[in-house]
Amino acid sequence: MASPVPIPDPTGGAGLRARLTIPVLAYGGILMAVMQTVVVPLLPDLPRLTGASASAVSWMVTASLLSGAVLTPVLGRAGDMYGKRLVLLLSLALMTAGSVVCALTTDIALLITARALQGAAVSVVPLSISIVRDELPPERRGSAIALMSSTVGIGAALGLPAAALIIQYANWHAMFWVTAGLGAAGVALIRWAVPESPVRESGRFDVTGALGLAAGLVCLLLAVSQGGQWGWGSAPVVSLSAAAVLVLAVWWLHQLRAERPLVDLRLVSSPRVGLSHVAALLTGFAFYANTLVTAQLVQAPEASDYGLGLSIVQTGLVLLPSGVVMLLLSPLSARISAARGPRITLALGAAVIAAGYGVRIADSRSLVMIMVGATVVSIGTTLAYSALPALILRAVPATQTASANGVNVLMRTVGQAVSSAAVAAVLVHHTSPVGGHPLPTLHGYLMAFGIAGTIALVACAVALLIPGGPAPETGPARAKDVRPVADGTKMEEA
Questions:
Q1: Residue 301 gets which letter from DSSP?
Q2: What confidence tens digit (pLDDT) does each residue in 400-450 have?
Q3: Distance CA 49, CA 55 (A)
């Protein structure tokens, strides 16, 4: 019988590199979220700067969404098989290369391609969480995983005002040079401070499964993200939706028959994993509505009778407390999970998100109450997002942590895409003319808050359905499941 493989504790006198492993991984997560956000302040001016249409410019956001959704489970699986640190470096290198291309061109086709490259960075967080499991002792994993999960909100809150300031006082290409420099620094820091995990799964990479998943997700997310613009009953949307169903059905059958599938569907079908993925989708929906609606609401002109007429820089500052709260509360979420279990933390987080939307419905005219409501939603998001990877790590083998977390992040991404489409549909159907231009009404915003709050309550109920009880073994993989790493580390059976 194989004994557990001892993984060296990097905190035990290994020096400065070991002490900085978690901060460096967190820096990578924040950088990923910043990358997703920085283009937002630039979108209104890009048609003028590039000579492209507004619909073409919108693909600057869609391209990174699609590539991130497709590449996250694929790169997660590659990390489990070929090395998590190696794939983590590849993800950040692609993001950095995308920033360099954006900094050097005004051609919209190249800009969209570069943004697709940047989408690869979405896999940084699930890969980092898997490294945390492999390298840290159990008593330190909870706080580290909670911090990594919070980097999504922290980076988003930091990225918006920082990008707006750079665009306001410098050439817009400077923003991408800054992200390129930050990305290069991230690559260097990870090479220096993060060890390569010896936990690997053997076998051949499922190329057919990766291509099938990519095709199905592209069709699905294109239909969801562009439905409002193209028309939900239009031929392209209907065709894409039908293609997504067909391709993903064939992909599902292939995964069930594959010897080494890209996604272990038998594992996904277990209540612990499957319900965690459903909760991730619902939580992603509920969380994303807060960011979308808050930014639009506070920037609406005062003539709308509810808007505050804030600039994009001021809007970023309004959202900044949410990011600070996520950073400060990540240790608390880890303590709750340690005391009560991650499913209770997830349920509590979803309930707090719903309470935050209750505040938004009660008062969305006062700047103070808007900030309070947005911050409460962020508190709930911190609790929920820190619990989701903890649930996954408790339910899957060590050799599948990156791919399983990648699927969980994919479900959050799908939830965010559906949230964006749903919020847009609600606001489009509740408009009134202001200064000759149609603007969403306050009632439309309140409906969006109500929908997001309801979805959060459903996520809470799903979380409570996740089986509890003691967690299975969360230590390293058994020796026979682990391949030697390139530096010659040997794994022996007892």
A1: -
A2: 888 888 899 899 989 988 988 888 889 888 888 887 778 889 999 999 999
A3: 14
